[in-house]
Design goal:
alpha+beta; Molybdenum Cofactor Biosythetic Enzyme, Chain A; Molybdopterin biosynthesis moea protein, domain 2; Molybdopterin biosynthesis moeA protein, domain 3; six-stranded mixed β-sheet; binds adenosine monophosphate; binds magnesium ion; transferase; metal ion binding; metal-binding; Molybdopterin molybdenumtransferase; EC 2.10.1.1
Amino acid sequence: MSLKPPPLKDDCFALPPGVDWTPVDEALAMLRGRLRPVVSSEEVPLMQGAGRVLARDVMALRSNPPQPNTAVDGYGFAASALPEGDAVLPLVQGRAAAGVPFDGVVPEGYAVRVLTGAALPEGVDTVVLDEDCAVNATHVAFRGGVKPGANTRRAGEDVAAGEVALAKGRVLTPADLALASAVGHGALPVYRRLRVGVLSTGDEIVAPGGEAGAGQIFDANRPMLLGVLERMGFEAVDLGQVADDRAALRACLDGAGTDVVLTSGGASAGDEDHVSALLREAGAMAEWRIALKPGRPLALGMWDGMPVFGLPGNPVAALVCTLIFARPALSLMAGAGWVEPQGFDVPAAFSKRKKPGRREYLRARMRDGRAEVFKSEGSGRISGLSWAEGLVEIGDGAQEIAPGDTVRFIPYGSFGL
Ligand code: AMP
Ligand code: MG
């Protein structure tokens, strides 16, 4: 009997001899270099623009504010005609209100009633606040020392007509819609939404709420990934699930009709890993053994010109790979450019020892100004994903983290969730 068991490994991520693991940053650089925007553009009503990607620079058609106006309710006059010290000015008849300008010119040495947002009447460059005035039927009195231009807004002080108000590639926020409207737009040029298919693979996977027999598990990845893509502003397309069956998988990819597909499961090099096998068969497969925990193999391939991200089956690894790899890649394909999540350096509330040679992401959340991590690093622990509000990123080099040490926390929000 010549069959001998191999020596035990205490770390299932240890480098097998002769295998080169791709560092996360190298894998990201390759992705960034190889992908291109794939979406055409269209016009949408401004009101429906939230979350869409601008396909062109948007110029200010009009200045904001369009004319000088008053920032407060009060009395307006020309600063140059003020006396030394306290002032008592005669009032002109009428007033200036928002949308209802004063009809006429305010003579030097006179004041006029003005309401917030009103265009400054001709002859007015300065406003004194109601609360600083005493008034009767004919005059207004206020203390000296009012600065010329006080309580007014200059035309174009926010944005001048002709300036670029919003740049191409921007993912439109609600605030961006406010700005675009203010500078005169009613419709916006945006890219068609990137269509992203989501497919679960595995003989053991049962649709949510279905009948699960012995050895079967409910599909956790598909609802999660569809939700992630929706939140990120893509058009998420549910491609359902397929068994560990190459023909079924092939038929599903052939019929996807999407710009890109995210599969989960079957991405390694095992007997039932049909995603990687099929992509390899198609001849356009890069199997990346990425130095990442949780993560491991990520199968990247082209299926008839359509990129396929073969994510790991473990839900924790599937989510981490989606946030770290798929998100910037999809953003680039959607016309929004490569994106890097904004992280924050914060004190750790935990301790950890880590070997060199791979990047790690821990399920984490902020409490009392410190980053806590989930009690287990097990990559099948879905409850930890739900518990977490972001990830702690631990660099590729060796690290020993003690409570109070600085770590990088990336909130889920920084990934567009
Ligand atoms: P695989 O990558 O196919 O070897 O799967 C790795 C692990 O993830 C296995 O325990 C699978 O049962 C599990 N898994 C695969 N797909 C899903 C899914 N959609 N939902 C929950 N667990 C999954
Ligand atoms: Mg599987």
